[in-house]
């Protein structure tokens, strides 16, 4: 195949306890998947069907990296999230079979240009400018499910400069991981390398230059991100 330019490098994330890397194909994100967060965003937390948005694969940022304060925003937010890594693809996956398709789990931080997201939401426009910008998906090492199991409960916590901002339990997810995978696979074929960010608890808030944001999920460790100046 004769390409007009060299293709970009394959985005990857680390694998816990290994030198291997997990190749990233797509990043799906679940919107408003904790009741308290749904309320703080001004919406009714009734159990309506989940909705999804995406981030580009090359938006991934590793644990310990500095993220520059992004352009076109004055309200840059953190969002602690459990990340599901798909290892076996499938379409129309029955809920009782979904966990067979999970390769592992990671700690994530869905960085958000909240002012742009809300402006788009209020106009009925897509969220891309608020959610899908460069370096907006901080994702820690993926822990193989064979080692950590399939976490359905456990603490999910975020601090900024040591001060707790988000503190919840994975059991509070409105839509569970098996439900999310089954519903998503009914719309499109999941494939190895797909990541799913499962939603954030209440307590989202702004980040400033110099802040250090730490996300920790019980059994999956923690990730840390420093916010650098605009570039």
Automatic annotation (TrEMBL):
- Per UniProt, residues of the Fumarylacetoacetase-like C-terminal domain are 27-227
UniProt GO molecular function: acetylpyruvate hydrolase activity; metal ion binding
Keywords annotated in UniProt: Hydrolase, Metal-binding, Pyruvate
Name of the protein described by the UniProt record:
Fumarylpyruvate hydrolase
Signal peptide range in chain numbering: none
Q: Mind telling me which SUPFAM superfamilies this protein's record contains?
A: FAH (SSF56529)
State the InterPro entries in the record. Fumarylacetoacetase-like_C, Fumarylacetoacetase_C_sf
Q: Lineage of the native species?
A: Bacteria, Pseudomonadati, Pseudomonadota, Alphaproteobacteria, Hyphomicrobiales
Q: Which domain of life is it from?
A: Bacteria
User: What is the organism field in this record?
Assistant: Nitratireductor pacificus pht-3B
């Amino acid at each position: 195949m004769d390409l007009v330019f060299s293709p970009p490098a394959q985005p990857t994330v680390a694998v816990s306890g290994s030198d291997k890397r997990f190749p990233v194909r797509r990043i799906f994100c679940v919107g408003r998947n904790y009741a308290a967060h749904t309320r703080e965003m001004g919406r009714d937390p009734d159990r309506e069907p989940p909705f999804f948005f995406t981030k580009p694969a090359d938006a991934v940022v590793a644990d310990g990296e500095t993220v520059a304060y992004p352009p076109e925003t004055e309200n840059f937010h953190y969002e602690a999230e459990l990340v599901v890594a798909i290892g076996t693809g499938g379409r129309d996956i029955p809920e009782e079979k979904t966990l067979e398709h999970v390769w592992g789990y990671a700690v994530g931080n869905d960085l958000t240009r909240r002012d742009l997201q809300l402006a788009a939401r209020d106009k009925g426009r897509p969220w891309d400018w608020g959610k899908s910008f460069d370096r907006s998906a901080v994702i820690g090492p993926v822990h193989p499910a064979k080692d950590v199991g399939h976490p359905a409960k456990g603490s999910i916590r975020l601090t900024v400069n040591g001060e707790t901002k988000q503190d919840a339990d994975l059991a509070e997810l409105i839509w569970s991981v098996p439900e999310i995978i089954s519903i998503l696979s009914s719309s499109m074929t999941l494939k190895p390398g797909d990541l799913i960010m499962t939603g954030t608890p209440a307590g989202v808030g702004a980040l400033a230059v110099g802040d250090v944001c730490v996300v920790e999920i019980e059994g999956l460790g923690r990730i840390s991100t420093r916010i650098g100046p605009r570039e």
